[in-house]
Design goal:
10 strands, alpha+beta, 46% strand, 4-stranded mixed β-sheet, 2 helices, 132 residues
Length: 132
């Protein structure tokens, strides 16, 4: 996955320090991260403007487009607590969807400093990722 950011220093602080994603290769105009086991690259575009749309899902305005990752529920819960303690501004605060159903999941949405929407999901049972 690759996204545009307006500032690599802010991207490094957000993805590297706040989210805890180790940094990989980089150059003056890009940096890649280990985004929970997936390659994630931030490319500089100083003219990038945040202008997300929102789609109604379960009574919440979900930012579109967005990207993210699926974690086990314990890792998701720890990350949610770390983000809360750092007073991140959530678009959708961490909560549990489909409680008691096969697709039970934790979800949260927030923006990075360049306005890219991020969704982090957590499943008690990762085998139920696509359960109906």
């Amino acid at each position: 996955m690759a996204v545009q950011v307006h500032d690599l220093i802010a991207a490094r602080k957000f993805y590297g320090e706040l989210l805890g994603c180790p940094e990989g290769r980089s150059a003056d105009t890009w940096v890649d991260f280990d985004f929970f086991g997936h390659q994630f690259v931030c490319h500089v575009n100083q003219e990038k403007q945040a202008a997300p749309a929102f789609n109604e899902v379960d009574g919440h305005g979900v930012p579109v487009p967005h990207f993210g990752v699926v974690l086990d529920l314990e890792t998701w819960s720890k990350l949610a607590e770390r983000l809360k303690s750092q007073q991140i501004e959530f678009v959708i605060a961490p909560y549990i969807r489909f409680e008691g159903q096969p697709g039970e999941q934790g979800t949260m949405f927030f923006f990075d400093p360049s306005g890219n929407a991020v969704e982090i999901k957590g499943f008690r049972n990762l085998d139920n990722l696509f359960a109906k």
